[in-house]
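pinning this so it doesn't scroll away 📌
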Amino acid sequence: MEFLSQVAAVAWKDLRVEFRSREILYTMTFFAAMVLLIFSFAFVTREGVVLPDVIPGILWVAVAFSGTLGLSRAFDRERESDTMRGLLLAPCSRTAIFLGKAIGIATFILIVEIVVVPMTAVLFGAPLFDHAVPLVLILILATIGYSVVGSVFAAMLLRTRSRDVLLPVVLYPILVPLLIAGTKATAALLEGAGDPTAVADLDAAYFWIKFLAVYDMIFIATALWTFESLVIE
């Protein structure tokens, strides 16, 4: 119970600071919305029909890029106020600090997705909510993996001068399998969109959902093992 209270305290600290300023949420949401809006004009045929094959990729590009903005800014706060040093000196587990930070980042990304997914459905006419349960599983699992991996690398680069440039460079190669899985799973749910006789490929969707679950387990274990040594260095 003490460990869980420590995790909750770190997460609540980040959420309380953000809900007072809403700086990260506004930035992430605005950026993701602009990406979707621009692509909604770019991928339209002369007949005014949106190309359905590009919808999953556009959705996950918006989530990935906005998530990077959130990661960078969330850890910049720790550097500017030197609160990371205070957290490391506090009488609590380093694992609790990591999990609290990851939960905070995951919450920001999920809030953005709550806005981005309906916006994608409206702008592109995508039947994303026809299979709500697998869609929610995809979003949650992908968000967990993104926040875990992102928190590790953002903390590692906290003292680096070029962290804003280096973070995407080191982060995206690790996230490529996650983003591919999220895109493939979403595409499977949209299989045959616009064709009333076609049905979604739920078997493929659940295959990629299982892939995301395995990805999360591997990187959660790796992150818990390496986080302390990375932040101390």
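📌 and the second one:
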Amino acid sequence: MKKLSLKELQRISAEEFQNRIKIPVLFCADQIRSGHNIGSLFRIADAFAMEGIILGPYCVKPPHPEIEKSALGATRTVNWLQSDHIVTELNNYKSQGYQLIAIEQTDKSILLNQFDVDRKGKYILILGHEINGIGQDVLDICDLSLEIPQSGTKHSLNVSVAAGIVAWHFAKEWINNDK
């Protein structure tokens, strides 16, 4: 086994990435304060060619040194917008056929491994504040909530770790069917 070089990985350019078809999945950050977590959302969205990111109120936004440290340039490739009226913004997407999915532990959560992604669907994956989670006003408009099954004592994951797990669950539907 040999580690591949960047040349062997055949990475596409930022311009090629901008022009490629994206999977119809967006992240929405609801009051995520950490620039490192926001930067990770950008990097994950780039890795899986997601449609973009919606940053809600109080979120750190590019350009910001903490974001860039973990995004590694993905702020220049991933489409994003910032909205101080996140419920209105999400309702606008909902009217365009997007399913609003809270990544949160609720009394009605569906375990992630029991959720089948519909390749014809459009999704917004909503992640919340590092301590308080998703605000109730946002939860109230969500179509469903997904929970990552966990067996340990903490029953919580860092926002960026949870985002990566959930993004892969959605992206693999397109990756598996594009071969």
